[in-house]
Design a protein that fits this description.
The protein is an all-alpha fold and 192 residues long. The chain is 72% helix and 0% strand. It contains 9 helices and no strands. Helix 6 crosses helix 7 and helix 8 runs antiparallel to helix 9. The longest helix is centred in the C-terminal third of the chain and has 28 residues. The termini are far apart.
Length: 192
């Protein structure tokens, strides 16, 4: 009879996610993971597989985390403008974890060029984000807040690209004032 696990899978997966998010795939060794997750090497392999399998599970975990965080920010909004402002503010004013940028963006830059599965996961996440943004923009167009000069999907792609750029900037020494100027200009372009 096997021993029962002495750890919570969700908790240790969260720790792995945070380490991969901070350091990236290549810079994170198995020893780093074992130490940070606080589990034995055998337990890691038995539960999560090898490093790449753990990375894929960490990306999946991040997807759930990120969607929940963003959804909580935009669902409080009563207008499309407020929802989009909240999305910007979530990135610009975010907590310490958001200073790590976006795990999907990091994975796109580091792993997607050489790993088709990571590329597919990242593109799916980006497409889902654009769809959520497109829905918000479409509602804003219907309410008269947002110009109908462009299709909602095109606006969503432009908005998503701007948000991704900010997710990169938060990892640098760029000032919040610079990021707020980018937000303000985008909002001037989008809203009537």
């Amino acid at each position: 009879m096997g021993r029962s696990k002495e750890f919570d899978e969700d908790v240790v997966l969260q720790k792995a996610m945070e380490l991969f998010w901070k350091q990236g795939y290549e810079k994170t060794s198995m020893s780093d993971l074992i130490e940070h997750m606080g589990i034995h090497r055998k337990s890691l392999y038995d539960t999560f597989g090898d490093k790449r399998e753990l990375y894929l599970k960490a990306i999946e975990s991040y997807g759930k985390y990120s969607a929940k965080k963003l959804q909580s920010r935009i669902s409080d909004a009563t207008t499309a403008k407020q929802a989009i402002q909240n999305a910007f503010d979530y990135i610009i004013e975010g907590n310490e974890k958001e200073r790590l940028g976006c795990f999907f963006v990091n994975a796109a830059a580091e792993m997607a060029p050489s790993d088709q599965e990571v590329d597919e996961i990242v593109n799916q996440a980006f497409n889902q984000a654009e769809q959520r943004l497109s829905d918000i923009i479409r509602k804003g167009q219907q309410s008269g807040e947002i110009s109908c000069d462009q299709d909602a999907q095109i606006w969503a792609e432009f908005l998503h690209n701007t948000l991704i750029g900010l997710r990169v900037l938060v990892r640098t020494s760029a000032s919040k004032e610079k990021m707020r100027r980018i937000k303000d200009l985008f909002l001037k372009l989008l809203f009537i």
